[in-house]
Structure formats: C-alpha cells, structure tokens
Amino acid sequence: MLIERINAETLHRNPAYSQAIAVSNRAKLVFVGGQNAVDGDGQIVGKDIATQTAQTLDNVVTALRAAGATLDDVIKLTITIVQGHSLQEAFTASEHVRAMMGQPPTVHVVFVAGLAHPDFLIEVEAIAAIDEGREI
Questions:
Q1: Residues in CB range of 71: below 8 A, 6 or more apart
Q2: What is the pTM of this model?
Q3: Quick check: 93 and 50 in contact, CB under 8 A?
Q4: Which end of the chain is more exposed for a tag (fewer CB within 10 A), N or C?
Q5: Closest by CA position to 124, among listed 58, 79, 90, 65
Q6: How many CB atoms lie within 10 A of CB 95?
C-alpha cells in the first residue's frame, strides 16, 4: 500500500497537517467515529479543553489499535471544538499524540455551539488506511 502525502509548492506548509493524501493499492480503511473525553466507564474526564483533548485523543488511539491501525496510518482527522475554547490549547495538549505520528494527516477543524453532551468540549474523528496484507 502506498500513502502519499502531498503538499503543493504553491500552498502554505504546516508541520501539523498535510494538504492532501493519496492512498493506493490494497488499503483497508478504518473510520473512527467521533470520540469524546470519556473514560472506560463513560465518565467525562476533565472540565478544560487540554484535559479533554488528551483523553479524547487517547480514545482515538485505542479505537485505532482495536481496528489494527496506528497513528501512522491516520490520513484524516476531523476536530470539532465548542466555540469559546482555545484551539491552541487543544493542539498543545495533543503533542503527546502528534509525537507518535510519523507524518501528519490532513486535518479539518470546526467550531460549533455544542456537542452531544453539554460538558463535552471536543470531539475527534479519524480515518486511517492500513495495508490489507499487514499482520494485525
């Protein structure tokens, strides 16, 4: 399988994300549904964006692993944040996860009025592509 990260010469380059990604050959796609800052018992972890971001991304990593994927396989992240909360604080809290990524995925960030639970501050979805022939 080939994952090609594309950053056109005429587009702004940012080390946190790729402008486009092309996937070819025997790819198995993994779609991780929106994860929030809940622990294994369903309890919300943290009341601030940094703590919730860390838990949310840990949940994304757990879901990826359950599907046989790693952070290196992620080709797209969708990050939804409740208005009024700092994207910069969320990115700072995600450094432990970004450090595990070899190459950055594409990223889409959106601010919303609210999420499924009034105490949720962030939700993250992921799309990963893994080699069908790779052992899990």
A1: 61, 64, 97, 100, 101
A2: 0.86
A3: yes
A4: C
A5: 79
A6: 9
Q: What is the DSSP string of 61-129?
A: HHHHHHTT--GGGEEEEEEEEETTS-HHHHHHHTHHHHTT-SS--EEEEEEES--SSTT--EEEEEEEE
Model confidence at 60, pLDDT cuts 50, 70, 90, reads very high
- CATH architecture label of 2-131: 2-Layer Sandwich (3.30)
Query: 């939804």: which residue's tokens?
Result: 80
What residue type is assigned to position 100 of the chain? M
Pairing of strands 74-82, 106-112: parallel
Question: What are 10-52's pLDDT values in tens digits?
Answer: 888 888 888 898 888 788 899 999 999 999 999 999 999 999 9
Report the alpha-carbon distance of residue 102 to residue 120 in Å, rounded: 29
Residues in the chain: 136
